[in-house]
Amino acid sequence: MQGLARVAAAGMMRAWAAISMQGSVTIPQPSDTPVAHSPGIDSDRILVLGSGPAAGWGVSSHDLALPGSLARALSGRTQRGADVALIASSIGLLASVQVQLRGADLRRLDAIVVVLGVGDALHLTAERTWQADLTRLLNFVERHTNDSAYIYVQGIQPIRAIPIFNSLGGTIADRHARSLDAITERVCLSMRRSVFVPVADVEFPASAGLSDSTDYRHWGEFLAKKMAGRLEVVQRSRYPVPLGSTDAPPRTAPIRGGDQRRLRRGCDTRLDHIVALAQQSFGTASALFAIRDSNRLQIRSSTGPALPTPAWSDSMSAMVVRARGAVIVPDTLADQRLRRKAFVTGAPHMRFYAGFPIEAASGERIGALGVFDPEPRADSGVDAVLLRQLALMIQEEMNTNGEFAG
Q: Is the pTM of this model over 0.90?
């Protein structure tokens, strides 16, 4: 009976949404090419994949809508150019989105922003269907994009913030949207490069219903704040990051709210990606993220030759945790504190090291991200800003998952 009731309710909601959408005929919408640019060198290339207000409701050009607003907001933060393209429909459903990506060259992109769900909330799309469709879409995008490109999946906009849906039906859709958002967050956590961007009613910048360019400007700033750090990592990388595999097996297993082990595996996969990015960015033989577990060093993620696990007090991570910021050791043999350490005199024969501390949400330092190499380097060539940004990416992953122990 519950299934029949849901089907009946979904049918009524679709009919109500269709009638309400008739009021959108008089709302201005862009008719120009769905792209926008902001001036600058080394432009970031962004694709917005969206529906609903992301299509540009209330303004006459995409330069005034989300593409232009996001491009300008990103440039304001990165001091680089930005090229933003849009693929959107007025009320598109998640199930139909992947078809729109066929033939698109996703490998040239630095980031993808997914703004979907208004239509699915209005139609009361089944939660199981939403999870399957979203998993399929994100697997597709991660397989076909550069391995340094992140996918930002924004939570569903408050439905009643859209004037034509500001009624009892909008309240029902809002309640369903929050359920879909909870699934979206879990699916993103299971992926390597998909980031959930929650939208709380109090912080969504377009509570007035996206009626003018000011609302889109706030929306662009909201997204740019979430994206700029990772884009900075890609641009500052001194070494090329390889393209992602096109034949990676899809991750389609169901995700249940109580299955913390799966979320932990998803977190570890994402940590592995960031650590590998650190190694590639600095061109070192190895990179490592380790945390303190009582009196021992626990390696959460590493890349490069196999490493010994010294006591915490004897590790480079312990030194980094005690420092104020980045620790850069151009040559361990020239450092009296380190020249006789086992990891210097023996494998991995560490000569160069750079590390940055990782903090828990409480502010307590729990570990460090480090990159190291058997060849010494000049400290003047080490990008401490890039190292910090990579460490903050790890910190965000750990804090998102509530993980501060092994």
A: no
Q: What's the chain's average pLDDT? A: 81
In a domain, 244, yes or no: no
- CATH number of the domain where residue 143 is located: 3.40.50.1110
pLDDT at 250: 29
Q: Is residue 246 part of a domain?
A: no
Could you tell me which residue, 16 or 59, shows the higher pLDDT?
A: 59
Assess contact for 86 and 48: CB atoms under 8 A: yes
Q: Give the whole-angstrom CA distance, residue 82 versus residue 72.
A: 7
Domain-embedded: residue 255: no
The mean pLDDT of 22-32, rounded to a whole number, is 69
Question: Which DSSP category does 174 fall into?
Answer: H
Instruction: Pick the last residue of a domain from 183, 201, 236.
Output: 236
Spatial distance between the Cα atoms of 348 and 313, rounded to a whole number of angstroms:
18
Are 177 and 117 within 8 A, CB to CB? yes
Q: Hey, how many other C-beta atoms are within 10 angstroms of the C-beta on 11?
A: 12
Q: What is the DSSP string of 273-288?
A: HHHHHHHHHHT-SEEE
Indicate the DSSP class of residue 95.
Answer: G
Residue whose C-alpha is closest to residue 400's, from 253, 197, 220: 197
Q: Across the chain, how many H-helices and E-strands are there?
A: 11, 11
| Terminal Cα distance for the chain, rounded | 45
Domain match, 171 and 64 both: yes
Q: Are residues 57 and 180 located together in one domain of the fold?
A: yes
Query: Domain span at residue 313?
Result: 260-401
Q: Are residues 213 and 290 in the same domain?
A: no
User: CATH number of the domain that 288 lies in?
Assistant: 3.30.450.40
CB proximity list for 177: less than 8 A, separation 6 or greater: 117, 118, 121, 155, 156, 158, 159
374 vs 307: CA distance, rounded Å: 13
- Inside any domain, residue 241: no
* Type of residue found at 286: S
Strands ordered across the beta sheet of 296-303: 296-303, 286-293, 365-373, 352-359, 327-329
Same domain, 274 and 150: no
Nearest to 151 by CA among 180, 111, 123: 111
